[in-house]
């Protein structure tokens, strides 16, 4: 007892001292010392604390101190003392409240309670050094369990030294402070059972906020790995649960305040704090909210509140969506449906809400149970999932590219998830509009959506659309839309690598799923060609897909055991099924269709390239060759089983072609007996299917026997296969085959496609079966000279006969009988066919044996190609008088082609003949000949680049050839030469290529788009910028930029001259295509060049506005300056579209981006300051001439005022007169335009005469229309300039007078009697623009 009394005495002494010092100095009460707080806590922790406290209060009364006098020094210690003193005072205060017989209402005060809460915050915000350690306080070490202090020998005085060493001293003090903090939290929770905070709403609010902040501050102070975080979060949860008791006020309001305070934690990226908040909310939703309506209402509204507070950046937004879904999942079903309806409505709100709704709808449909109500009896259309799904589809057509892309990708993910359950297929098809054909567009809603989104201007949208297509293949049901497939095929040529990969994946997925003709055809036309792509990964993907989807499928079909039992069907059953149907049953999965499509001329080159690449990498397997042989054998046996004549049989189309390609790398897998059998078969019955020579010369495919074409093609590919495996041939069969081939060559009666194959096969067999190279060379030379000699004899005989016929026709003799004439004509036709074949054979021989003697051939060919020439020197040469081009055009064409092959082998001869080839290319009226000459000149360019370089402009004229084939061939060949640097982008070449962008042929337009957007953008990035202004002049056939007055007829055919709508739209398409290839700095420079070289030239009189071409150039410049492609959008960090493009990118380049934006803004400002004076001067010039171009100028100026409002703002603020002028001119222009529109509408509505002309308006109608137009113009002008002025109001119309530009006011007065001629404007502006540095590069292509 003596010890307790001594403690009470010391505490009373300290309180008296605090009272005296407070009364004398009138300052806040000094805090209690550490020793006093420990003494007080010892009394409160004693076993007889109630009796001691009674004694303490009695002694307080005896000294004229009330119980509340203890609180000021306590709260002072909480607020101003060190952390340990603050926590000790908080512990003592709470212990006082919890002590039995304590005057709770006397001791509790809201202000003192706030001091307690502040001490808790201070303990975590300002921890002592070293408190961030990971040593958790022991569970038994709580402050409330501190042992009772023993009596001290002397009374400790309150001083500096007493308060300084409580926070120092290392780990022991840290553990002591942590124990104190836990003790205070536990006591705080117990105090809430005694004190009802319903009368103190501010205290309740502060308590909630403080307890919510404790886990956040603790994770920062103690570290996320601290073991004490869990216990701390449990303590905070218990306190918050006690706050929700009815004693502390309305539970619904308290819950709302509590959830509002938890919102920052829920939306934070810190895992521990976020987990604590979400765990508490979910427990609240599943517990108290189920029993109390007010709490349930607050919990139901929480997801909506989180939606309004969700951040806009991608990663935090994703965490917000995840948190919202976690909360919604534990809610009641009815509450979930209400929230879904809210999300559906939210999907039509602002951009930030729409993007959030798109993510929420995906997660709701993925994570909530039974979204379509399939387990109940209700219709799926009425379910919440169906509405949500429809809303998500609508967002796929959102105005924001980011939302469109996110909607499509989410829809693809959703379709992939839901399609795994067959029950959802019908619902998905109904929701996406399968089978619901739009009568106007002729396609379903989903097909229209996919078509538009696959051609979207934003790359991320196109990528997401292709991903959706690949996911939808499982539920299309074989009804793939042709337009969608073609769009996917076009995407395979997209400039972006990611888009091409996505398109390949989507198209290949459709190929795996369906074997329809439309799918197979589109895949084979689009994917194999990517073997020539610049991206190595795409080439590898192309090889892998061809191996999987074509070769493996063919191998599987050809090695099927059912093929061996194909002949087991009875004769009657075989006849019932039919030949073609039986083949389809034997080879399913579209194998026959695949082989047939491979024969397409646009597919074959890429298939050959892929097979060659796979063979070099040793990825081809023997089973491929074996399967192709089995397919051909099965086809033959199936044909014979139907008692069909063997001479009418042909192998499945494409089988021999594919075998000829793979046999080059799989020679061991090809059976010689198989080849020998089919060669004898084709050679024996080939004569019955040969072409009639006359039909072969007419080039009329419609008159040819399709079976004959197949036989010829099979022989060609069979010969190639034999050549590939010739090393494996036995000696005797190889000699027989060589003799047979030579005999057929010497007969000169083969089809044109067979000649090269026979010659190459014979050479290959000779080389591979010779003992040594010299022997092979001798053998080849011998038979080549023999064949040449016979071909020369045939050619000479034809020339003699032709000369004799011409001489006979020149004599006046009576006409012969009709029978004799027809026999002679038939003989002449056969002789011509033999001669053409002989000439073609000569060309083939030159290619396989370039050193052959052509001295006898060249004069004969020269005579043919120069027959009918007007040159008197050439007319003296022996030869036909009538041009061969007229009597035998096929021979004429073949002679040019053979001469080209001879020139390729003889470098000395080509120098003399190249001018002749160019001359014929320019004047020939035969499209096949022009096409062959273009190919020949391209070969000359590769072999003799320097000789052909000067003729490139003449070759480019074929880009405007009337024949589409010639134009396309020229474009492809020149493009390849340019890519391989045989031809340079200089002179008129680039400008002439521009016309291909608007060619009549869709195929040429696609090739041009790919060239400019994919190849040139990488190979010559500055080409579009450097040639843009010149292109404007050339396309309009205007030579003002060159200073020449003579019209250049040579370049006129490469212009799109005219001011009609069609011509303007074509030119604009070319301009836009070029602008899309430019970097931002080049766009700004192009803007400046257009102003300085076209607009300034027009205002100076250098560009004649009286000439229609000059007007067209100026109008095109206005349209380009006003188009959106030339504008650089300013960086707006809050816009959704900008975020969509950069959402997935990191923040490493923020500094460089900011620097780039600053430079861009400075250039824009300088640019527009120099541009506006040019526009003002040019406007006055056009007004003085009453030019129709004033409308284009005003439209362009209106766009500039809106798009460059930040830059123009400074000009208008500094020059009020200019602002008035712009407002006045803008109003006048808008009024005139509105009057025309009003007059047109009034006339269109039907006048008294019903003629619908503007001239029939009554004066009253005209006045009404004029008044309406004036009002509309006033509103338009005000709105434009109000945006520009950023809040500076436009002056009232009454204050606007006729404007005069200050800088030219003196020059415009009276110089020409008010005639309105242009003034002598300051030359400094134009001179400064001319001196402007351009963005040229030394390494410009």
TrEMBL record:
UniProt source species: Linum tenue
PANTHER family: CONDENSIN, CONDENSIN-2 COMPLEX SUBUNIT D3
One Pfam family per UniProt: Cnd1
Protein keywords: Cell cycle, Cell division, Coiled coil, DNA condensation, Mitosis, Nucleus
InterPro entries attached to this UniProt entry: ARM-like, ARM-type_fold, CND1/NCAPD3, Cnd1_C
Compartments reported by the entry: Nucleus
GO biological process per UniProt: cell division; meiotic chromosome condensation; mitotic chromosome condensation
Official protein name in the record: Condensin complex subunit 1 C-terminal domain-containing protein
Basic residues bias locations: 145-158
Domain Condensin complex subunit 1 C-terminal: 929-1100
Coiled-coil blocks: 1194-1221
GO molecular function terms attached to this record: histone binding
Domain of life of the source: Eukaryota
Spans annotated as Disordered: 127-173, 1132-1153, 1307-1341
GO cellular component, one term: nucleus
